[in-house]
Amino acid sequence: MTMNTHLKQTALTALEQLPESTSLDEMITVLRELQWQTLAEECRHTNDSLSCFDLMQKWIGCAEGPADLSTNPAYLAGYGQ
Predict the structure, then answer these.
(1) How far is residue 51 from each of residues 15, 32, 54, 59, measured CA to CA in Å?
(2) What is the total count of domains within the chain?
(3) Is residue 37 part of a domain?
(4) The whole model's pTM is what?
(5) CB neighbourhood size of 39 (10 A)
C-alpha cells in the first residue's frame, strides 16, 4: 500500500467515524489534524525538526482580528520615540 493510499484510507476512516450531524468545518478540522499528524510523523522518520509555523499551523486563522496591527494607528502610538 502506498503512502497516499494509506493516507486516503486513514482520512476516510476518520470521517466515517464522525456523527451524521458533523458540519463541514468540523470535517475540515479533522482532516487538518490528520495532515498535522502526518507531517509530524514524516519529520520523525527523516530526523527533521518542526518549525514554529508547523506546530502552530492548525491554529492559524482560528481567531478574528485585524490582519495587521498597523491598521489601527493607536497600536503604533509612541512607536520609535
Answers:
(1) 28, 17, 5, 14
(2) 1
(3) yes
(4) 0.50
(5) 15
Is 34 within 8 Å of 14 (Cβ atoms)?
yes
**Torsion sign, CA atoms 62, 65, 71, 74:** negative
Grid coordinates 525538526 are at which residue?
Answer: 49
36, amino acid identity = W
Tens of pLDDT, residues 50-60 = 777 877 777 77
Give alpha helix (H) positions in 17-66: 24-46, 52-56
Identify whether the C-beta of residue 26 lies closer than 8 Å to the C-beta of residue 33: no
**Residue 2 predicted with pLDDT over 70:** no
